[in-house]
Amino acid sequence: MMRTLDPAITLEPQTADHAVELYPLLADPALYTYIDRPPPDNLEAFTNRLRRLESRRSPDGSQQWLNWAVRLEDGELAGYVEATVYPDAAADIAYVLGSRFHRRGIATVACRQMLERLRVECHVAHCYATADRRNLASTALLNKLGFCEGHHHPHYPVSPEDVLYFLEMQA
Fold first, then answer.
1. How far is Cα 166 from Cα 125, in angstroms, rounded to an integer?
2. For residues 150 and 130, is the Cβ–Cβ distance under 8 A?
3. Three-class SS state of 83
4. What are the DSSP E strand ranges found in the chain?
5. pTM for this predicted structure
6. Neighbours of 98 (CB within 10 A)
């Protein structure tokens, strides 16, 4: 566990052991208004998904798949943050917090911690994120983190419903 920026929030490398705590948060259909995948089907399937992600690598080994559970000071899990790191020093980020943890600054602190890890530990120079055009909370978060609207993602096309955001990481 690493504590940075705010002692009230810790990022833990996500494992299958987090499934029991994360599943109830992520099974909330309200979270998926702007996420293009459905909630997890059941705890077993979700646990298996987290177990597959424990390798922290894509199946072909070309990408790092970094996932962290967001732990609050009181011990409760709030959600997760994740990054896909590409060989060209670029990364995509994403984040999902349980509904009851929204609008409390938790995502801001957790994402800042993740971005710092990506910069220092993974030497990421360019960071990308996408958000549904209607998701004003996510857009505000990305702007607060210093992201600007981008125009081209180097690794995949961006859905017309989404806005691409870009952050030049400080060395």
1. 11
2. no
3. strand
4. 9-13, 64-72, 77-85, 90-97, 126-132, 148-149, 162-168
5. 0.92
6. 22
- Whether the CB-CB separation of 12 and 113 falls below 8 Å is answered with no
Which long-range contacts (C-beta less than 8 Å, at least 24 apart) are formed by 44-52?
46/19, 46/22, 47/16, 47/19, 47/20, 47/23, 48/16, 50/14, 50/15, 50/16, 50/18, 50/19, 50/22, 51/15, 51/16
Q: Identity (one letter) of the amino acid at 94?
A: A
pLDDT in tens, 48-72: 999 999 999 999 999 999 999 999 9
Tell whether the model's pLDDT for residue 127 goes beyond 80.
Answer: yes
Please answer whether residues 167 and 147 qualify as being in contact, where contact means their C-beta atoms are separated by less than 8 angstroms.
yes
Measured distance between the N- and C-terminal CA atoms of the chain, rounded to whole angstroms: 24
What is the distance between the alpha carbons of residues 84 and 66, in angstroms, rounded to a whole number?
6
Contacts of 61 (CB under 8 A, 6+ apart): none
Residues whose CB falls within 8 Å of the CB of residue 71, separated by 6 or more in sequence, listed in order: 1, 9, 10, 11, 12, 77, 78
Tokens 């298996």 correspond to 48
